[in-house]
């Protein structure tokens, strides 16, 4: 085992404080802490990461949460300092490594509970740990392959020619879902902002204007971005095929109304037989032109028929 890399993976939650977190600590083959990372957040979804998941999943999740700003900066930094102090203390570090190397889950959980609870301060704190062992070659290969996949974009695929409209989310202070708990796939209620000809076109296309009031519609969340801890949260939603809505919210504590099919009714649909172009206009001119030509042909046909009958009657009268 001297040449093995030992990795701790831990998840924790404080139900009373609504705090959740994950930790990864990597011991190299020299029994030194090579690297570590952690995050503390109010987003309960991070606790879904099971202890048996790969260490790379833990690192990626931590980095993603920090990049999006979905974390408690003060507690995260304090916990980082706490783990760093373990790295600097030879006795604690050796004890920690021995527990991990022997797969002593009970003592590892107690060790991590003590370290995390110094920051969270919750006697009912729940801590679950996982221990992973790998070779230096496997470790480097995983990092290499992950680096390749990191080059791929996580941006949602939006079809060419689609319309992205400004929307205003409907707030629900009592029964709504906190914006910091929003997930991809949630359906919120939003109202298209009528601030342009394009937006007004789609409002009318879906019959959303009623007595000069714009009716709200369900919007499925397809992307969430946050520019840092104090920055605004940007939510991209899909309203329908080729129609998207985007909103920006500065307040992190607001609650958004979730779509209820029973209370809110079925989603609005665009009127049929109208084409949506990338500029938000409709190509009904050609359709109208085609309809006008048909009616013209009918009138001309009737006129010719009457003329033929009239000529035939005159011919018969002289016969």
Describe this structure in words.
There is one protein chain. The protein has 319 residues and is of the alpha+beta class. Helix content is 37%, strand content 27%. It is built from eight helices and 13 strands. It has a five-stranded mixed beta barrel with strand order 5-7-10-11-12. A four-stranded antiparallel β-sheet has the order 3-2-1-4, sandwiched between helices. Strands 6-13 form a two-stranded antiparallel sheet. The longest helix is centred in the C-terminal third of the chain and has 34 residues, at 285-318. The chain is elongated and about 130 Å long. 25% of the residues are buried.
Question: What is the N-to-C succession of helices and strands?
Answer: EEEHHHHEHEEEHEEEEEEHH
Count of DSSP strands:
13
Mean pLDDT: 83
Residue windows where pLDDT falls under 50 for at least 5 positions: 147-153, 273-293
Structural class: alpha+beta
Largest sheet: 5 strands, mixed, barrel
Jot down its keywords.
single chain, 319 residues, 4-stranded antiparallel β-sheet
Draw up the topology in text:
Layout: E1 4-14, E2 19-27, E3 33-41, H1 55-68, H2 73-88, H3 90-101, H4 105-120, E4 126-135, H5 136-149, E5 163-169, E6 177-178, E7 187-192, H6 197-205, E8 209-210, E9 213-214, E10 217-226, E11 233-240, E12 243-249, E13 255-256, H7 261-264, H8 285-318
């Amino acid at each position: 085992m001297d040449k093995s890399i030992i990795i701790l993976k831990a998840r924790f939650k404080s139900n009373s404080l609504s705090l959740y977190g994950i930790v990864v600590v990597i011991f190299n083959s020299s029994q030194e802490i090579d690297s570590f990372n952690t995050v503390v957040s109010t987003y309960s979804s991070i606790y879904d990461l099971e202890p048996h998941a790969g260490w790379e999943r833990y690192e990626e999740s931590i980095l993603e949460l920090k990049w999006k700003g979905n974390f408690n900066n003060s507690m995260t930094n304090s916990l980082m300092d706490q783990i760093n102090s373990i790295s600097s203390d030879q006795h604690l570090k050796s004890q920690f490594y021995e527990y991990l190397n022997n797969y002593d889950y009970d003592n590892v959980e107690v060790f991590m509970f003590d370290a995390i609870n110094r920051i969270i301060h919750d006697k009912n704190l729940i801590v679950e740990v996982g221990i992973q062992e790998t070779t230096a070659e496997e470790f480097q290969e995983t990092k290499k392959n992950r680096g390749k996949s990191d080059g791929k974009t996580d941006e949602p695929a939006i079809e060419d020619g689609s319309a992205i409209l400004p929307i205003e989310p409907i707030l629900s202070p009592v029964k709504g879902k906190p914006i910091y708990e929003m997930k991809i796939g949630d359906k919120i209620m939003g109202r298209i902002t009528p601030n342009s000809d394009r937006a007004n076109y789609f409002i009318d296309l879906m019959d959303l204007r009623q007595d000069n009031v714009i009716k709200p519609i369900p919007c499925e969340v397809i992307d969430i971005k946050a520019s840092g801890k104090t920055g605004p949260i940007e939510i991209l939603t899909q309203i329908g095929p080729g129609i998207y809505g985007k909103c920006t919210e500065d307040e992190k504590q607001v609650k958004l109304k979730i779509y209820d099919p029973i209370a809110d009714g079925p989603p609005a649909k665009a009127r049929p037989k109208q084409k949506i172009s990338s500029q938000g206009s409709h190509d009904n001119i050609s359709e109208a032109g085609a309809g006008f030509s048909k009616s013209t042909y009918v009138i001309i046909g009737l006129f010719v028929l009457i003329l033929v009958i009239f000529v035939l009657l005159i011919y018969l009268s002289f016969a």
